[in-house]
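Provenance

Sequences were taken from public entries as deposited. Structures were produced by running a predictor on each sequence independently, with no templates supplied. The record for Protein kinase domain-containing protein from Aphis gossypii is shown for reference.
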Amino acid sequence: MLATSDSSFLGKHKLQIWKKIGEGSFSKVYLTKVGDAEDKNPTMIATKVINKNRVSSKFVEKFLPRELDVLVKLKHPYIVQVFSVFQNGYKIYINMEFAENGDLFTHLHNTVMSESQIRSWLMQILWAFIYMHTMGVVHRDLKCENILLTSNYNVRIADFGFARFVDRGRNPGADTLCGTMTYSSPELLFGHRPYNPVVADVWAIGVVLYMMANNMAPFRDKTKEEIHKKQISKNYAFRKTLGRSRPLINLTATFLEPDYMKRTKLKNALQHSWVREGNIKTPVDVITANESDRAINSNPIITQTSLKVPAFHYHLSEYGKTISKINEGFTAV
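Predicted structure for Protein kinase domain-containing protein:
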């Protein structure tokens, strides 16, 4: 549990920590109540707490500023919504949307998914990443644990700790090795420096798609050498007992293409026959960008509008609008 000083600080902003719901390498995540103590129907959010004294100087100086910049910039129905960011001494508090149904990784341990459900979640992931890449952002750490599920089982892409901006008008090269080995593309494991983080994101989506269809990872070896060998030879298989359709298997192969020059484009994946046969509406069909802004601006939860993180000269009001809003305007599609 947080120290008394933390609880007191958050209490000034009408935030009350209830319990810890997650923990990562650099942070802890708490379920947080918004509003007065006597509120009988409180709004619940998630508060990510980062202790700068317990992470490397490289993380504080490089990755944390990037994460905050990215979280403030992105606003999409299938990306976790950030409401506010505070700093109190050496701790950073990121207050964000709470996903009641946990993460995809846990869900896969308990459920064999229908192709209809796989299709729905894949489309949500694709639209989130198409938007993200259009905004000049690459995630670089997509995995099932970073795909959260809301109360009505919609996707929320989370954990932008390794995300960065890329220049969309130039070759978006990256040198830093990020992410989890299971989800890393062949060119990331061995070879190309700089690599293209956009197509590396595409590979990671393919691993997620495979795992939704098979309840296991496509490459489960312990060393990157063994994994890389199987990636290059396309040495993976679908579980016959699950009876997955040939179009789904073929689509997965376009993501798990070891030659990054031949790997599918996300917009092309949306046009694949297996995706289109579901006739599922996309976010573009459901809500426009202007409607998205109105939905967010009509649901204020926290009224903090100017937040500073002096350690790296971070000022949210530079973006010209408050991010201290909650997005409740989106429903399942």
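The first strand starts at residue 15 and ends at 23.
Residues 62 and 312 are 9 Å apart (CA to CA).
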